[in-house]
Amino acid sequence: MQRICAGSLHSKDSHFHFKMTDYFSIKQLLFEELLVQCLPGNNASCIMEQFSLWASFALYLVFLSIMLATILGNSFVIVSICHFKQLHSPTNVLILSLALVDLLMGVIVMPFSATRTVHGCWFYGDTFCQIHTSFELFLTTLSIFHLICIAVDRHEAICNPLHYSREITMSVAVMMVCVSWALAAVYAYGVIYSKANMAGLEDISKSLCLGGCFVFFNPLWGMLSSAFCFFFPCTVMVCLYTKIFIVAEQHVRKIGDKNKWFVKKSECKAAKTLSIVLGAFIFCWIPLFTISITEPLTGFSTPPIITEVLHWSAYFNSACNPIIYALFYPSFIKCFHCIITLKIFSSNSSNMNLTVK
Q: pTM for this structure?
């Protein structure tokens, strides 16, 4: 570090000026020494986040808790539906696939996002950044498609109860799952790998620092992605559930003619529970999808910390669904208890009666 000899000057003003210059030079050099680069020795490197040890530990603890809740909770749902024969139904086929989506979010997406959030750096290379981004978009889109299928399933069960068992069979449910996975994959990987979302943003991509994982959507794809993959489907699902509850209320009022109007109480309760799942999804994801619309229009001015908070708010939704099932599905509570107490390994446990009186 260079020093400036202020004593060699005779003017008081010059003496003061050089002392101040010396102070700011020293301060700037010290500040630069404190900064840690994501790619050491590269002048174009991004700067690593400087959290204290305790702050980093607290963040990792929070993220680890969300990941464990996501992985364990959805694993319980998957094992329950696969093992217990009483849960083998078209609706639960869709719930099983949705739980698999949430499980993959906890296993593949969240761990790498956690290190990015804490350190402000992407340590896994540009290729894996693209894979991680496309997989995150794929799972998000897939969750929405599953919720649409579930809403259609509940609509048929409540609004057309006499034809439901004939129209919504196990094979139909499996087909809905396969189509959802295929369409979501085509959309997510098509957009990211074709770089359609980056069209017109070449100047921004060239000015980015190295060692980060950045994804931008231009105004066109920002609006299209949010409108057609979130806001429009959610509007349709809200309308479907609104109709479901109106029809269910009519069934209750006309319960006298049982042959025409009777609907199982369990079907109505399932519709209520799954509407809560939809509400949780909308609550967790709407801030992030709103940002994807406004960001291109505001010059991508949202602070990175805000973006990371919104991402983890969205990730938290994957941990919510098993909690909702446990709170509102007594049969799932019984399944979870059997798994935890290892009764699932007893003979003939798959035929266990899960009905709660």
A: 0.82
